[in-house]
Design goal:
InterPro entries: DUF4832, GH
Protein name: DUF4832 domain-containing protein
Shape: globular
Amino acid sequence: MQLLKWSTKRLTLMWIVLVMLCTLFAPSTMIQQSQAATIGVDGNAADWSSINALTTNTGTAQSLKVTQNSTNLYALVQGAGLSTATGSFWLNTDNNTATGYQASGWGVTGIEWMLENNTLYRYTGDGTSWSWNAISTLPASQFVRNSSTIETSIPLSTLQLAVGNTIKIGYIDNNSATNRLPAASLLLPLYTIATDTPSTGTTTVVTPTELDSPLNNPFKGWSPSAKSTSYPQQHRLVYAGVTWKELEPTKGNYDFAAIEATNNFAYWKSKGVKVVFRLILDSPSGSAHRDIPDWLVNDIVAQGESAGVAYSDATGGMGAGNNTGFSPNYSSTYLIARHKLAIEAIANRYNTNDRPVAFVQIGSLGHWGEFHTWPYVGPNGETNYTGTFPVNAISNQYVQHYIDAFAGKEDKMQLMIRRSIALAKTNNKGLVMGMFNDVFGDKPSFDADWGWYTGTQNGYWDDIGQQQPAHKDFWETRISGGEFYGGASGMNAALTTGAGFTETLRQTELSKPSWLGPNSPASLAVGGTLQANIDTLKKRMGYHFVIKEVSHPTTLTGASVAVTVKVENKGVQHFPFAWPLEIQLRKGDTVVAKKTTTANLTTWKTGSYTVTDSIPVASSLAAGTYDIAVAIINPETNTPGVDFANTGKLTDGAFKVSTTTK
């Protein structure tokens, strides 16, 4: 059924019914007139300048904003070439997608009200049937439309809304499948009916304004290659894949200066961007080469051992341009001994208070450090065609090197592994690893018996016939990451609205990644056709903290002020490090008193959390008005380091949430 395709005859019948209803039931059934508000419904959007968009899109319908005062709900659509004949707002007013009309073209909706042009309709059907009651036609004081702006107001009482209610809202321009807000296939954005600073007796309760947009926060989002410094999309992580040959060009000489120059460590530090680090022993490319040092090859041979095998895969299975390299002899006792020293050097280098490296991926084993030497059968039936992958007794020694080197350093660097193995959660140091999925978005690689997600949850038989255990629900305490599958084409497919992006969102909900890279959309131009989906995914990945409510005494009396903060994490994952949550009493830019709460952000998974603590107040504090602020403190700088999805951000990064007086 196509929505909003109203015939002239049907509109005429609707109008007759409306007139009869008005005659029978008197004007009390008509929608109430809007009351005076700071927003004027006049087609001029200047008075909306301080209000952030709930959702954006490219093309005709570009931005949707919503606000309210004590009596009216206001909505604004801005764009270019908007239809002046047909358009519709869709409202889910009970925040329940299982009730109401299921409008096509978005995710599940559950619509109770539709404002088509200036006529308001209440849904009366069973969820799929097209059954609406016309409630009223809005006057010019409540509905204005032109080709660039659509502005309306509806009394909250008509929609049966009150403070604290959460609604979902969208807009469709001219019955279009694409010119809509939010973009096609997305979920309708949320808006909570709030008041500014209501007081009840001696207590002030504040509902801060929420921002419905992705944030450029630490340890989440995109992690493109560190080797470039020019990415259109914002990001706070970069990926540094380092070969052993780069790390130790001569025996015992760990050339960190060269590695850090190549990967722009100083630049990224200046931008507050952290590094995902991977040591690689075999990185296939288009030409013959080795990724372990020449001196190491010579020493292994001198020990009477094979150094490995050079390969050039003619099957095409490794991907165009990625078919040639050198697979080390992982069983070499000399290589194992030198690998231990190399991993220790990396850990010692980056276990510092400035924390340049946030996550260390266990690479070392297999092509690209991905725990495989596939393909195993060559064009003429050769076994182990591109090198032999080691059995557990050997590969576990490499993993143990990481455990020994990084155990006890989890406050600065966290260890991650691609495949679930016993040592990932059970080892002699009590170190539990996060995991990363280097084929994120690809359904078979996720769900098959051998798939990444299936393996983490149920265990699996690996590529060389060994049974490996599960690392079930590792994300409950550790971080999940990865990168999109299939290079640029796979990433674009995974971000394109339809089956691709639907699958990406499903995998996000199941495996709860905080970041993706180096294959990520960081290099795509801002505002392209994939931007809405990029933003949706970035917002949902990792953590996304929203301050929902703050309460405190209206006036300062005594030696402290008790503050209660309610926060919702709308992301899929917790914050990875134990950064402190601080509540502050401020006079302008000066923090006059503060308290570090006992909140543990590493336990804040998806859901709501309440923190209550008291800020000490000196008896000498002068009379006056003071701000109350909330901040997550970066221990590296001892300053606020994480944005909440709220308005009120101060110049130092803390968030003003209320005021009080003494």
